[in-house]
Specification:
There is one protein chain. The chain is α+β, with helices and mostly antiparallel strands and 568 residues long. The chain folds into 3 domains: 169 residues, Jelly Rolls, CATH 2.60.120.10; 145 residues, Beta-Lactamase (2-Layer Sandwich); 148 residues, Heat Shock Protein 90 (2-Layer Sandwich), CATH 3.30.565.10. It is 45% helix and 24% strand. The chain has 14 helices and 23 strands. A 6-stranded antiparallel β-sheet has the order 13-12-11-16-15-14, with helices on both faces. Strand 12 and strand 13 form a beta hairpin.
Length: 568
């Protein structure tokens, strides 16, 4: 069914072309058409020939209106050639197709029988040739010929049965459609309850994706969020025993295209679409067939993420799937915003407390540290012996480290970024920083291994890099109380410089891996504030980089710090 096109003003009859009627001659092909019409089935030939003189003929161009609904019925039509469409409109403007008539059919009889206006409209689908009988002649024909009357009754009964069957089928289709819509609505309500049940962002990403995939029968998918500062999409996907963060530029790939344009991408054959990147399939061994990729918008209509679903289990993704995901994405966007606000509120409250505590404690300890440093300088200047001078240097470095730690903690609590960028050679810089840490590692029976594949230039804050290394190596030492091996690696990686700190410890349990960078979170330690990794993450992100974690149970853990290769 479809909406009725505006064909006429309410209450006015539709205009028809002037009828060109010609008497139907006995020598014309209309006699044969009359004999083949179902109204004259089994009627004696002489009666048919006699009746032909009462008919007029007319040719109707394709698309013309033959008669309109609610118009007065004046004629009966016998179809000789072409097709005629009988249809009706509801008061809501919805069109219902009642019948398609072919040569040998007749139409227009109901209004002639009951005297009421036409109950439907008739349109020529093709160029049609018809024989026309006036209402008066029609009644005379029916009254004087029993077989014609029987044929008329038989045809009316057949059409009534057909209309009953059509009505029942239409009623069934409407009932099924209503049930499907109700099921979808119930599913959406349940999905919204599930989506709004989590406030942890990492957990929420998985919940939303799981609900979306199950609801429309997708095999798998990915939920990306937009990082406006980096102009990237990011998500977390399973890899091995853990989760890793993936990123891609906005505008790249299907998800990037949707994030940039806001369009819905529904592909029935992924490999035939130039926007699809088959490289991921080649690496993973997965075979993508169908794809539904849709933007996720917040209450202001801004795109905050992209939902990408793959391989509908039965058929391909359709309009109903698009409508469901669009409705679900509204609830998902609200849930994500709520999760972010909840995390920000908790973190801000915690950081506010840290800030108040740090401001008081650090103010008290800076005075003594300054005095110690002054005495160390005096020892170094007044002693000619090498041993006191070396000890003084060590005192100065440690006090500088304490000052840096104090400042980093204070900056983290206040949420400020204070970078002193310089371009340095990475190899010598790392060696100098690790030389300071190596003695401490040796005292814990930990062997420090250096494996540098990249030693070239990079632009960063060296003091902040020292803080990153101090925190990462300190954490690694904590998980190896009986000693072990710690490996520091460097390499160039897709526009970044990667610095890795790998340990031979027991690995990171799955249940805490997603919480590693939360402020104040600690695990298995009797000391520490739980801010070390949070500070590492903030320092690296201030450099427009990122931190990745890989870990296998019983085989240690690797923290990878990625700094942009180009200058900031």
């Amino acid at each position: 069914m479809k909406k009725r096109p505006p064909s006429r003003p309410p209450g006015k009859a539709a205009k028809r072309r002037p009828a060109v009627r010609r008497p139907a001659r006995a020598s014309s092909p209309f006699l044969s058409a009359l004999q083949q019409n179902i109204l004259f089935r089994d009627v004696e030939p002489r009666i048919i020939r006699k009746s032909l003189s009462h008919f007029t003929s007319r040719t109707i161009p394709a698309g013309d209106l033959i008669f309109d609904e609610y118009s007065k019925g004046r004629d009966l039509y016998l179809l000789c050639s072409g097709r005629v469409r009988i249809k009706k409109y509801t008061k809501f403007g919805v069109e219902s197709l009642l019948a398609v008539l072919h040569p040998g059919d007749f139409f227009g009889e109901i209004s002639l029988i009951d005297g009421f206006p036409r109950s439907a409209r008739a349109e020529a689908m093709d160029e049609c040739s018809v024989l026309i009988l006036t209402a008066e002649k029609f009644r005379g024909l029916v009254n004087t010929n029993r077989q014609v009357a029987l044929n008329l009754l038989h045809n009316l009964a057949l059409r009534l049965r057909t209309m009953d069957q059509t009505f029942v089928m239409e009623l069934g289709r409407n009932a099924l459609a209503s049930k499907n819509k109700l099921d979808k609505l119930s599913m959406l309500i349940e999905a919204s309850k599930v989506v709004n049940s989590a406030i942890d962002l990492d957990v929420l990403l998985g919940v939303i994706l799981d609900v979306a995939s199950r609801s429309i029968g997708a095999d798998r998918g990915t939920l990306y969020l937009i990082d406006r500062k980096a102009d990237e999409l990011w998500s977390k996907v399973a890899q091995g025993d853990g989760m890793v963060e993936i990123r891609l530029p906005i505008g790249k790939g299907l998800a990037g295209y949707v994030a940039r344009t806001g369009e819905v991408v529904n592909i029935t054959d992924a490999y035939s679409d130039p926007r699809f990147n088959p490289e991921i399939d080649r690496k993973s061994g997965y075979s993508t067939r169908t794809v539904l990729c849709m933007p996720m918008r917040n209450k202001n209509g801004e795109i905050i993420g992209v939902i990408q679903l793959l391989n509908k289990r039965i058929g391909h993704f359709g309009p109903e799937d698009e409508a469901f995901i669009e409705a679900l994405s509204v609830h998902a966007a609200i849930a994500l915003e709520n999760a972010r606000m909840a995390q920000e509120m908790v973190q801000n409250e915690r950081l506010s407390a840290v800030g108040r505590m740090s401001s008081t404690i650090l103010h008290d300890i800076r005075g003594p540290m300054g005095t110690v440093r002054l005495y160390a300088e005096l020892i170094k200047q007044g002693s000619g012996a090498r041993k006191p001078a070396e000890m003084a240097d060590a005192m100065i470095r440690q006090i500088d480290s304490l000052n840096a730690l104090a400042q980093d903690t204070l900056d983290f609590a206040k949420g400020v970024s204070n970078l002193r960028l310089e371009t340095v050679e990475l190899g010598p810089t790392l060696n100098r920083l690790l030389n300071v840490l190596e003695a401490d590692m040796a005292s814990h029976s930990i062997t420090l291994v250096r494996s540098f594949d990249y030693t070239g230039t990079c632009t960063l804050d060296v003091d902040k890099l020292a803080r990153v290394l101090y925190n990462l190596t300190g954490n690694a030492a904590d998980v190896m109380p009986d000693g072990g091996t710690m490996t520091i690696r460097t390499r160039a990686q897709e526009g970044f410089i990667a610095i890795e700190v790998a340990d031979s410890g027991p690995g990171i349990p799955d249940e805490i891996r997603t919480r590693l960078f939360e402020p104040f979170f600690t695990h298995g330690k009797k000391h520490g504030t739980g801010l070390g990794l949070s500070i590492v993450k903030k320092i690296v992100e201030d450099h427009h980089g990122r931190v990745e974690v890989e870990s296998t149970s019983g085989q240690g853990a690797t923290f990878r710090v990625l700094y942009p290769r180009v200058s900031l």
